[in-house]
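Q: Please design a sequence for this.
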């Protein structure tokens, strides 16, 4: 298969133009129009954007800072992005004040825009100069790498810039860049009339290649990992000695390899700058390359210097540039019977302690609660004396050693970080695999005959869950692989799926795992950034086209969560994360591996909305997933849902004749001011409750000149509204007692009217037993614990991230744990005697349902007993009414 690329996607052309137009005024690059003579140098004619240096040929900028600033202002105004540095997240290494909203108004003063950049000393020129930064923000899956590669070719064609360095944060991204260069080679040659170019990866064993990079007059692309040249700035003598790029070598005539990069004065492209130059040492290392400028590309900038183009998640989803999202969830229902414990975190900063999630007793019954515990704590006491934790759940040991974190309990049970017991966890992950397989097979049937391969990706934390080894290091399927094979075997017998030929193959041929290996070939857990991971990334990228072929039976892929960023195959239609989504960017990272639009067997992108849906099986409800995803978008991208920047009003238009004309900036400001005055927006542009077009009697007043576009204004605000299901539960304020009010005569008069009383209650035990037994007999059936499977369509719009339930069903789970002491539990809840409780349970005839779901049975019976007691108290109350003076109430003097 050969992937095909569309040359005329407007959003990508706009992103390319945003960079290329910054250099407007630079002489055209074609040598036939702008030749620089270099007689005697042996280099032939140079482009206008090139300059001969001592060690080779470097890029040369011929326009001044003032012209560059005017170009920057024009590009930002055209693309409606902020006119100065946009700070989306705090940067502790930078003390400048952020533009927190990322929505500054376009500069309309006509003055040059201040250009953010580094001051550096240009060694080849022996002069100080500035290295400006320019940022492009593009949502994951929209072709960020394609865009900056095309930008390289366009800058070369237009201005003659020929030296480029692509700095990447990791091996995974590096392999992705190399693969993109390989698969787009023919495409770019066709777009740019077959220009000669070379690309290579920096290798400390082949530093001679840097001489060729410096001296060539043709387009050169160097790809380098930040770790390959950052060590010189980390300060240790060992690292300084080990970093070849900064050491003089006889291979380069006693020159340092870095000097040849400096001589080229490259345009440095930083892929994922939030990971590449996030520290002062990294920035110093990049400055040492002597960049002409830096072009920074990311979906999640920490600091978007001189932002020139933005394609945020909202625009990407609205323009159907990525797959739409369907979220499935598997959550245990009605299960609080077992001793559930999950190790969430282990910390040693303020004494060694662990964060555990357990089932604790609350006023509304047992529910999940997160506790911080230390050695010696007892979960029986910390849980509100829940019987399930009575034996063996004291904290015997907490190990906080990084990589070995665990909690050992008095019973000898050891739980490592992220592990859990109880809570139907095994049943939940089995349900997750079952549902993911079901969706995969349904997708296969849906796309049958269309030449579109369907892939499913499972992310796991521990290799042993996929591939286990016995004492002789012989491999065996782990529990996840066994569950997948069992599900596939069952589906193979289903008549609905008989047309899927690959389902008849041995199950182990349709799934595989991509993990690092040790020297013996054994799969192992890694962080994702070690040398052992290199071959895994290489395999992933080499297998990319093979996996897209229908002739390849492999459909189900297991990968370590640490390797997540290496996976971006376009035909991933299902993602199942068999772990908790705990990190603040986890949902977005997970989605990023499957957002790209799929391709068919001819390598052509599929633009069918009914096909382009990504199913994500999450460990949380779809409402929680949507809410957390929205938070991640807001934190990562500066996309503030429910907030209208001034630029949004500037997009309003009215018909003039038969043409739509945008309103003027002054009118846009007047409309926004009118909305603020009517309290429909606040000063920051956030939509307020007063804007409710569905409310009876709603009216919106606009300046007279804008009255004709009232409906478009209402539509604009409505498109930015946050869905109502995301709301603040309480305002967080603390109520305090007003002591002066308690001392007032009015309060004393009120207190006198309350008349506190003491009561004596009489009722017969036989009557209670009979009534309570009848009520228990009539209670609703006790259902078994179940796994609720939910699928939902997730929409990302200006108004926020919304989830709409599409399908819900439950699967029963069989309770197999130890039974709690029901009599002790009910005695504690009701204060009745044991003999009375036993009689009620026996007489009710419903005791057998206790074994189906013990906790649900106990809670329901306890509620009935309390209700019957309350009724008897009312019926049998004898009031001994006597006035009492509240001992704590100060008396107020009569006026």
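A: Design:
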């Amino acid at each position: 298969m050969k992937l095909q690329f569309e040359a005329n996607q407007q959003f990508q052309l706009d992103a390319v133009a945003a960079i290329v137009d910054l250099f407007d005024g630079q002489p055209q690059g074609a040598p036939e129009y702008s030749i620089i003579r270099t007689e005697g140098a042996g280099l032939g004619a140079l482009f206008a954007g090139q300059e001969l240096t001592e060690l080779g040929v470097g890029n040369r900028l011929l326009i001044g800072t003032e012209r560059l600033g005017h170009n920057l202002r024009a590009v930002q105004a055209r693309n409606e992005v902020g006119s100065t540095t946009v700070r989306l997240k705090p940067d502790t290494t930078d003390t400048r004040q952020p533009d927190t909203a990322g929505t500054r108004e376009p500069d309309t003063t006509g003055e040059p825009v201040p250009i953010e950049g580094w001051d550096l000393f240009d060694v080849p020129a022996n002069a100080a100069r500035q290295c400006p930064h320019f940022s492009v923000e593009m949502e994951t899956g929209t072709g960020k790498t394609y865009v900056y590669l095309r930008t390289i070719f366009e800058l070369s064609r237009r201005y003659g810039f020929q030296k480029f360095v692509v700095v990447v944060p990791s091996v995974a991204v590096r392999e992705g860049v190399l693969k993109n260069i390989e698969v787009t080679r023919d495409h770019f040659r066709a777009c740019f009339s077959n220009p000669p170019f070379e690309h290579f990866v920096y290798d400390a064993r082949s530093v001679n290649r840097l001489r060729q990079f410096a001296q060539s007059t043709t387009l050169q692309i160097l790809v380098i990992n930040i770790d390959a040249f950052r060590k010189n700035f980390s300060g240790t003598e060992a690292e300084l000695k080990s970093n070849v790029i900064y050491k003089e070598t006889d291979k380069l005539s006693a020159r340092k390899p870095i000097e040849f990069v400096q001589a080229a004065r490259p345009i440095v492209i930083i892929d994922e700058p939030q990971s590449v130059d996030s520290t002062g040492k990294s920035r110093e290392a990049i400055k040492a390359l002597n960049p002409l400028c830096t072009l920074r590309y990311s979906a999640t900038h920490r600091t978007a210097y001189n932002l020139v183009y933005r394609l945020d998640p909202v625009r990407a989803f609205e323009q159907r540039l990525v797959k739409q999202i369907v979220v499935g969830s598997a959550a245990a229902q009605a299960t609080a019977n077992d001793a559930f414990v999950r190790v969430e975190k282990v910390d040693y900063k303020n004494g060694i302690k662990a964060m555990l999630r357990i089932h604790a007793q609350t006023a509304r019954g047992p529910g999940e609660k997160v506790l911080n515990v230390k050695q010696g704590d007892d979960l029986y006491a910390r849980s509100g004396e829940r019987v399930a934790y009575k034996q063996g759940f004291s904290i015997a040991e907490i190990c906080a050693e990084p990589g070995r974190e665990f909690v050992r309990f008095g019973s000898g049970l050891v739980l490592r970080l992220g592990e859990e017991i109880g809570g139907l966890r095994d049943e939940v992950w089995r349900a997750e695999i079952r549902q993911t397989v079901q969706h995969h097979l349904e997708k296969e049937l849906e796309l049958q005959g269309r030449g579109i391969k369907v892939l499913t990706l499972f992310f796991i934390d521990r290799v042993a869950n996929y591939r286990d080894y016995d004492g002789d290091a012989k491999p065996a399927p782990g529990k996840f692989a066994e569950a997948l094979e069992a599900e596939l075997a069952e589906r193979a017998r289903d008549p609905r799926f008989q047309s899927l030929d690959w389902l008849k193959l041995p199950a182990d041929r349709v799934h595989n795992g991509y993990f690092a290996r040790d020297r013996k070939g054994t799969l192992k857990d890694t962080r994702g950034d070690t040398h052992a991971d290199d071959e895994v990334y290489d395999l992933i990228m080499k297998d990319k086209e093979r996996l897209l072929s229908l002739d390849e039976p492999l459909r189900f892929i297991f990968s370590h969560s640490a390797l997540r960023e290496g996976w971006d195959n376009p035909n991933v239609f299902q993602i199942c994360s068999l772990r908790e989504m705990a990190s603040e960017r986890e949902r977005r990272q997970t989605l990023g591996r499957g957002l790209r639009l799929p391709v068919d067997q001819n390598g052509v992108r599929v633009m069918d909305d009914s096909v382009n849906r990504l199913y994500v099986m999450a460990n949380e409800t779809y409402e929680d997933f949507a809410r957390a995803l929205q938070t991640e978008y807001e934190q990562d991208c500066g996309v503030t849902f429910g907030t209208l920047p001034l630029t949004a009003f500037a997009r309003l238009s009215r018909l003039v004749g038969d043409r739509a004309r945008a309103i003027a900036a002054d009118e846009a400001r007047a409309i926004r001011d009118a909305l603020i005055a009517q309290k429909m927006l606040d000063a920051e542009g956030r939509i307020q409750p007063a804007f409710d077009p569905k409310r009876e009697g709603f009216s919106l007043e606009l300046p007279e000149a804008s009255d004709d576009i009232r409906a478009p204004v209402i539509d604009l605000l409505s498109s930015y509204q946050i869905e109502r299901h995301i709301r603040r539960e309480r305002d967080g304020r603390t109520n305090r007692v007003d002591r002066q009010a308690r001392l007032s005569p009015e309060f004393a008069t009120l207190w006198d009217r309350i008349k506190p009383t003491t009561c004596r209650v009489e009722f017969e035990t036989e009557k209670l037993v009979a009534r309570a037994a009848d009520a228990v007999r009539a209670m609703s059936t006790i259902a078994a614990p179940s796994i609720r499977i939910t699928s939902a369509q997730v929409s990302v719009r200006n108004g926020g991230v919304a989830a709409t339930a599409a399908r819900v069903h439950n699967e029963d789970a069989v309770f197999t744990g130890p039974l709690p002491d029901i009599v002790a539990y009910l005695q504690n809840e009701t204060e009745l005697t044991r003999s009375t409780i036993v009689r009620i349970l026996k007489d009710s005839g419903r005791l057998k349902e206790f074994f189906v779901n013990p906790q649900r049975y106990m809670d329901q019976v306890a509620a009935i007993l309390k209700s019957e007691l309350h009724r008897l108290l009312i019926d049998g109350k004898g009031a001994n009414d006597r006035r009492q003076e509240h001992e704590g109430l100060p008396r107020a003097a009569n006026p």
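Q: Thanks. Anything notable?
A: The longest strand covers residues 800-812. Residues 646-719 form one domain.
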